[in-house]
Amino acid sequence: MSDLASLKRLFDFTDEDLAVNRGGNLSARQYRHYHHMRLANAVNRWASILTFVLFLISLVIFIGISLAYANQLGPLTLVVIGVWLALVYVMTRIIPMMAKVIIRQSTTNDTHWGNRLFGEVDPKSIGVLQATGRLSFPTDGEHRYVMLGDLELTNDAAADKDNRLWKLQTERTYTIYYLPDPLWIVAIEPA
Predict the structure, then answer these.
(1) What's the predicted TM-score (pTM) here?
(2) Residue 31 CB coordination number (10 Å)
(3) Can you list the alpha helix ranges (DSSP code H) found in the chain?
């Protein structure tokens, strides 16, 4: 996979995107995608924090009730434990579902939620970096890496690895246009 048409399909960019990326910027289409990714990451992070905090609060309440009423409840203590576990389970299912709804809503109203969370962001202020090098898949005996020259793009142990990179032709020179953190390759072309 080395011709530009195949790379455009694999990495989902257009000729217009590539032209803007060569100038060091995101295209309007890529900015919408970036904005959505950023929102999804923020919403998921807050959903995780909220779930953990609610779990801790429910644990404190549960321990307080259990200690205070254990003698009066007797065998019903097991019922209270079951109810608490059921509530914790329901809570851990509902919060991520609410997060998905917020993220889904953001696709219909592109900037509303993102602007509320992050403030206005000028697409021109997001600099697209460029790197050119020979692609290789070295190994250290334990892990395989995708390297573009000296730049590590991903490895087989990375939680956020980009599996599209493994489909590229090794020992070929490419120019990538990317955002570094987290790594998002916005466009790629044979050099």
Answers:
(1) 0.69
(2) 20
(3) 4-11, 15-22, 28-73, 77-108, 112-118
